[in-house]
Amino acid sequence: MADSEYREMWEKLDLDLPAHDALLEVLGKFYGDIYMSQQGRLQGMEYLDFVLSEVHGLRIKELQDAKAEGRKIVGTFCVFVPEEITLAADAVHVGLCSGADAGTELAEQLVPRNTCALIKSFIGFKLARLCPFTESCDLIVGETTCDGKKKAYEAFADHAPMYVMEVPQQKRACDRELWKSEVLRYKEAVEKLTGTTITAERLRKAITIVNDRRRALQRLNALRSANPAPISGRDALLINQVSFYDDPLRFTQSINALCDQIEERIAAREGVAPADTPRLLLSGCPMAVPNWKLPYVIESAGAVIVGEESCIGTRNIRDLVDESGETVEDMLDALVDRYLKIDCACFTPNDERMDNVAAMAREYNADGVVQYSLMFCQPYGHEAIKLGKRLDAEQIPSLAIETDYSMEDVEQLKTRVEAFTEMLVR
Amino acid sequence: MADSEYREMWEKLDLDLPAHDALLEVLGKFYGDIYMSQQGRLQGMEYLDFVLSEVHGLRIKELQDAKAEGRKIVGTFCVFVPEEITLAADAVHVGLCSGADAGTELAEQLVPRNTCALIKSFIGFKLARLCPFTESCDLIVGETTCDGKKKAYEAFADHAPMYVMEVPQQKRACDRELWKSEVLRYKEAVEKLTGTTITAERLRKAITIVNDRRRALQRLNALRSANPAPISGRDALLINQVSFYDDPLRFTQSINALCDQIEERIAAREGVAPADTPRLLLSGCPMAVPNWKLPYVIESAGAVIVGEESCIGTRNIRDLVDESGETVEDMLDALVDRYLKIDCACFTPNDERMDNVAAMAREYNADGVVQYSLMFCQPYGHEAIKLGKRLDAEQIPSLAIETDYSMEDVEQLKTRVEAFTEMLVR
After folding, report:
1. Which residues from B are below 8 Å from A116, CB to CB?
2. In a 3-state reduction of DSSP, which class is residue A401?
3. Summary count for chain B: helices (H), strands (E)
4. What is the pLDDT of residue B2?
5. Within chain A, how many helices (H) and strands (E) appear?
6. CA–CA min distance B405, chain A (Å)
7. What is the residue-wise DSSP string for A12-60?
């Protein structure tokens, strides 16, 4: 599709075209520096490069085509929104822009200055008219996972078609009841939006689609326990990021093809870094596109990332939905149970996350853990202290990083990560 | 009681005596500067001066005496913990120290630097062994009202006997169910702690005690609509603060006696400031003892505070528990309903708070509203922006202040408040 057709589409979506051009230019350069400069990439990453190069182009065109066919677009910022229900009503489920500083001054008129970069970003993208995903949405589904998002959605609702799901804060029977009623309420909302009744057949198919994507990503992650590391952390993060935007069937097929290549590479004892490269697990806050700063810093400091313990990582794929349900009711119960297993820092206590991180570090043969918190993210900021103590107790070295989307601290981060990595030399 | 007996008591509570001495000295001087310097105070404030001067002395002695009689002490940081249930089990219900910088360096080892002063304070008071209330507690009841407290309680639980109540984030039927199950769980926990079964008679009596205190404070607030203002905002804040520490029966009696005096003063058209003094409503985060900085700044800048819209203010007293219930079940339902009316910023949406603040400003004949947010308090930080817009729309002037417990910004705050007050001259 020609660039002029995209421009026409973006204009129809009421994007700020000059600012959007500038954004795409910066994004392209950033991607080139961080991704295209890598040595020994897997051939299958070409698919991801293509998807990312077309993330505001071809993918948005697909959304517009879906809308022209009468399908609805549902946007989200969180792994708690049950994608299976969206898909079962034949709507499209996409993640929204929240990974770069954009429209920050405008955002700070709606939310406090002391708000994390991710929240300021999604509000800024909307107010500055820079996110074609947000502008394509018929419904945007938020959740009450943190104070920052919970309260930001109230302000955001004046600018976008918001719907908010309440996520409980503990995991007892009464919390499951609350969460179940929220899942049922979401089902009704999506049915109303789309005019499509969610049948057992539709829901079963949707559960299989999303589980298949999770299985492909689980397969990818399992292969990363190999030494030398067969894929860079940057590429694996990109794959996880793209999983929120791309058509799920196409994506799953591509990732399985990539995994076939990785298996060949492992059989040949090849990798993206020598076998003695320090292996790090990245753990903490989500990294939305194009938030590649810390992975780039880490992998430029002589280490390789072997896992992402985050919502844009294992938190989104670890648990499958039980597929044995026969009725809609059975399947909804299975969804309720699966989503309540998520080890988000919004829960108190959230000890299973401590267990999961320690287990991942061992499983992926990591030499250490880099904890990543967005500045002003209270849930993961608190857990960073708790997790640091737990990792100390298990004699797993860890480094806690707090940062935002600016580039001002890159040199300082490099220095800290290099010092940490040197300590780990295998 | 002689100072030496208090020292013995503090020693038994394992307080850090030299640091505690220093704290009491600073507190005494601070109180003298801010409170004893006031002109035309009500004679009934002597009771409050006495209670405050004995807050770590006589009141702690009373708690120790209660413990010696086999009664239990329950400490809290939030107006969501149903005091009626604590009292019905014959336990003592007290607020805990959280209004001054204390043990900050120690606290920052347990919680992130970007945590509000109130949370750092309660952790610091505990770790530095400076709060005789905390040290007297058999149970400390937290709640999930904000990310900061929710996660801080996890760390705090390693140092104190913590119990956490989950507060829902919306107010629909499923939220009421969750909250009801939490109220029932709290009842069971208190019964287990005390060995006392909560009967209808006990619960009815407790409801009356707490309602009577609310009624006395409602009476006080209603009298503050008079012009000239019959009582300073500092004194009214102190009364609200002391309501969390003092014996409820004694307190209620004293406040009603004070209200009698206020009525005489109003009849004589007398007040603490001339009738043309700008009248301000204070709104936002709670101000725990000895957090008197902003009220002092405001009332030193030629204004008078006529109401406190905060948890240590109207949020704790606006709603009574329905007293018509006959059975324990009825009364528990009445408690559930009453507590779910609280217009805390933890709810989304929380539009009733916007309505309540605007209504209070009119009711108390306020010329403007000073919004107070603790730095890094996300819920009230977000609502400050929303409330500012609402007050603008109602043509009620407002000023948003974000601060902490340090004294470094006092001059800057004075300048801002003076500029705001001059704009309002009646």
Report:
1. none
2. strand
3. 18, 8
4. 65
5. 18, 8
6. 17
7. HTT--HHHHHHHHHHHHHHHIIIIIT-SS--TTHHHHHHHHHTTTTHHH
Q: Is B355 on the interface with A (CB under 8 A)?
A: no
Q: Which of B108, B109, B382 to mutate to test the interface with A (most CBs of A within 10 A)?
A: B382
Is the previous residue joined to A228 through a cis bond, with omega within 30 degrees of 0?
yes
**Coil, helix or strand at residue B140:** strand
Q: What is the distance between the alpha carbons of residues A105 and A119, in angstroms, rounded to a whole number?
A: 13
Amino acid at A405: Y
Q: Which residue of B has its CA nearest to A179?
A: B174
Nearest residue, CB atoms, A382 vs list B152, B174, B175: B152
CA atoms of B329 and B310, how far apart (whole Å):
30
* Backbone region of residue B395 per phi and psi (left: phi > 0; alpha: psi in -120 to 50; beta: other values): left
Cβ distance of B382 and A153 shorter than 8 Å: no
Q: Which of A148, A348, A375 sits opposite B144 (nearest CB)?
A: A348
Residue at A324: amino acid letter: S
Residue B426: its pLDDT value, please? Answer: 64
> Which residues, listed in sequence order, are joined to residue B94 by a DSSP beta bridge?
B75
B392 and chain A in contact, CB less than 8 A: no
Mutation choice for B interface testing from A106, A150, A392, A403 by most B CBs within 10 A: A150
In residues, how long is chain A?
426
Contact A177 B177 (CB under 8 A): yes
Cα nearest neighbour of A400 on chain B: B112
* Residue A129 C-alpha, separation from nearest chain B C-alpha, in angstroms: 22
The first and second tokens of residue B125, run together, are 């008071």
A73-76 β-sheet, strand order = A92-95, A73-76, A139-143, A162-165
- Name the residue among B144, B178, B373 with its Cβ closest to that of A178: B178
B395 burial class (0-12, 13-18, 19+ CB within 10 angstroms)? exposed
Place of tokens 């074609």: A132
DSSP state of A167: P
Q: Which of residues 52-111 of A touch B (CB under 8 A)?
A: 109-111
Domains of chain A plus CATH, in order, are 205-320+344-424 (3.40.50.11900)
Choose from A147, A156, A164, A404 for mutation: most chain B CBs within 10 A.
A147
Banded model confidence at residue A425, pLDDT cuts 50, 70, 90:
confident
Instruction: Going residue by residue through chain B, which has 426 residues, state the pLDDT in tens, using 9 for 90 and above.
Output: 567 899 999 999 999 999 999 999 999 999 999 999 998 899 999 999 999 999 999 999 999 999 999 999 999 999 999 999 999 999 999 999 999 999 999 999 999 999 999 999 999 999 999 999 999 999 999 999 999 999 999 999 999 999 999 999 999 999 999 999 999 999 999 999 999 999 999 999 999 999 999 999 999 999 999 999 999 999 999 999 999 999 999 999 999 999 999 999 999 999 999 999 999 999 999 999 999 999 999 999 999 999 999 999 999 999 999 999 999 999 999 999 999 999 999 999 999 999 999 999 999 999 999 999 999 999 999 999 999 999 999 999 999 999 999 999 999 999 999 999 999 976
Nearest by CB: B150 against A114, A153, A169: A169
The C-alpha angle with vertex B282 and arms to B279 and B285, in degrees rounded to 5, equals: 175
Token look-up 């002490």 returns B73
* Residue B258, helix vs strand vs coil: helix
pLDDT tens for each residue of A182-211: 999 999 999 999 999 999 999 999 999 999
Chain A residue closest in CA terms to B376: A114
Interface pTM (ipTM) of the complex? 0.96
B positions 317-346 inside 8 Å of A (CB): 345-346
Q: Which member of A181, A182, A378 has the closest CB to residue B151?
A: A378
Q: Structure tokens of A222?
A: 């399992």
Q: Supply the pLDDT for residue B3.
A: 79
Q: Please judge whether B385 and A109 are an interchain contact, meaning their C-beta atoms are less than 8 angstroms apart.
A: yes
